[in-house]
């Protein structure tokens, strides 16, 4: 955290967790006030100057009658997103470790719908990731009609990919060998391709046989990660649509294996995998302006709007009242 931003604010308790090396800072925003600006999230995500994580996961009180918690997800670039599969498994373990619930079936509200987390033995968690969305406008992906395989022009090359939403957008390419796939070169170009107006997570899928696959994912807002749960789900959907995979697939990612099941269109994708809790920490957040400065700022605002720039500052991320 930059020297000038060193915290004078409140202490924030957090837990560092991962799902197959896809790592998270997890915050209970029920038992403690939570307020982080996107630029602070970026600083905390830095693996040299901050805590270091792929995503920040926030536990909030439920916003709907039939759910247990609200689940918010922020990429390391500070962007808030709709879904994180590996994070959902860690979320389930976190809320039980923190005694926020003793349920083994936990319903959580995400930005794109409700998902169900089932806690198993030895840190294993199964997630009902919901029904994949294949209609281009809902992904979102620019196409005149829905196809199983799209042709996309990128930087003078033509690639074929499938487009799937698991609540978050994914493009999935078929490759002969993930070890030699152009993840670093094609990943960022497709992540930011204009046909993905909300950007996208880009999966590179190698089919071993009808029940085994290998996958690397260049994630939207975080770059290549050791594993991507929603990416594994999207990749199995894409492989099934292409007639290459059966309904139950073991997906090998850099950080380990997930089991993905999908019975076909209209049915939910089920993901099973491990969770790990690494350490607990405390962080002193950047202080707000001192009461005196804050008062003068208010006066400034009240007086002449001289602090108008303050109104333009991007709103901090705060837990819902
Ligand atoms: N980068 C993703 C969010 C995290 C997804 C991934 N970590 C997972 O396990 O699903 C996005 O912007 O949609």
UniProtKB/TrEMBL annotation:
Tell me which InterPro entries the record gives: DAP_epimerase_AS (IPR018510), DAP_epimerase_DapF (IPR001653)
Residues marked Could be important to modulate the pK values of the two catalytic cysteine residues (site): 170, 219
The entry's localization annotation reads: Cytoplasm
Keywords, alphabetical: Amino-acid biosynthesis, Cytoplasm, Isomerase, Lysine biosynthesis
Pfam families tied to this protein? DAP_epimerase
Q: Tell me the Gene3D superfamilies matching this sequence.
A: Diaminopimelate Epimerase, Chain A, domain 1
Q: Where is this region: Disordered?
A: 280-321
The protein's annotated pathway: Amino-acid biosynthesis; L-lysine biosynthesis via DAP pathway; DL-2,6-diaminopimelate from LL-2,6-diaminopimelate: step 1/1
Q: Where does substrate bind?
A: 22, 55, 75, 85-86, 168, 201, 219-220, 229-230
Return one GO MF term. Answer: diaminopimelate epimerase activity
Q: Where is this site: Important for dimerization?
A: 279
What is the protein's major site of localization? cytoplasm
Source organism, top-level taxon: Bacteria
Q: What class of enzyme is it?
A: isomerase
Q: Which reaction does it catalyse?
A: (2S,6S)-2,6-diaminopimelate = meso-2,6-diaminopimelate
Instruction: Show the active-site residues.
Output: 84, 84 (proton donor), 228 (proton acceptor)
Assigned EC number: 5.1.1.7
User: Quaternary state and partners of this protein?
Assistant: Homodimer.
Read off the PANTHER family from this record.
Answer: DIAMINOPIMELATE EPIMERASE, DIAMINOPIMELATE EPIMERASE, CHLOROPLASTIC
Cited function: Catalyzes the stereoinversion of LL-2,6-diaminopimelate (L,L-DAP) to meso-diaminopimelate (meso-DAP), a precursor of L-lysine and an essential component of the bacterial peptidoglycan.
The family note in this entry says:
Belongs to the diaminopimelate epimerase family.
HAMAP family xref list: DAP_epimerase (MF_00197)
The protein's name is Diaminopimelate epimerase
Mind giving the lineage of the organism this protein is from?
Bacteria, Pseudomonadati, Pseudomonadota, Gammaproteobacteria, Pseudomonadales
